[in-house]
Each structure stands twice: as structure tokens, then as C-alpha cells.
Amino acid sequence: MAEPAFDPAALDFGTVTPEEFAALVRQLSAREIADLMRGELRERVLAEVFGRMERQFRPDHAGSLDAVIRWEVTGDPDVVYETAIVDGTCTVRQGRSALDPRVTLTMGDAEFLRLVSGNGSPVAMFMTRKLKVAGDIGLASGLTRLFDLPKG
Fold it and tell me: pTM, whole model, 2 decimals?
């Protein structure tokens, strides 16, 4: 008997651990991620991922960093979030503020989910132009160490 099809809409993303999320993203193809990232479900997934950034922030790795990181996730529709790191704290807000970001990262849904779940290489994404970086490339290259990401 075949296993029932995975239904991401039935998943409570608020209860999924970072490790479970990483395993889920690892098993999905780009097409399955595209199907997942549609409509209200896309909003829920992005809100949950960005909502966890503050909790997964590693202030011990930030030192005296003072920066705004703008995340532009392209899709239907494009979504912008900003991460502000100031005085050892991380705050996240949805939308584009008037602040000047130190770095802007632009990528599609699949690349974003792979990056934040520890399943994608930011260097490979950058080299293949699936991740675009504007601003401080040095900061961009060290972002993953600022957050407690699952090891994909």
C-alpha cells in the first residue's frame, strides 16, 4: 500500500523544529518547493522562518556588528523582510523600511528555504546567480554563522 501523499498545508509550522524543517526541505525537489510556496501557505512558511530568526540569533558571534540585512524573496508576490542586528540583539520586521541596508540578499523561494535550513551552499548559490548580493559581500558571506542553523 502506498504511503499517503505529504500535505504541507496540514503541517503546523509553529511546532516543527529547525531539524525537522531542514529534513523536510532536504527531501523536497525545486518543483515541490514551488508548489509549497503558493498563496497563504507561502505567507505562513515565510512568517515562521523569519519569526524564528530572532530566537536562532547567536549574539556571541555578532560582536559589535551594527547592520540591517534586507531579504528579498522573489515569488508570487515578492516579499521583503529586514533583519536589524544592533548591540547584540536581532529584530526582524516584514517590509522595506527607510533604513539603508548594509547588505541586500535576493533569491527565490527554493534558494531561500535551502539557505535558512542549512541545505544550500550560499557560495554555490551566489556563483550560479541564484543568490544576488548587493552591498557588503563580506557581511553576506558570514551571515550563516550568526544564526543557529540546522546542519543540512
Answer: 0.86
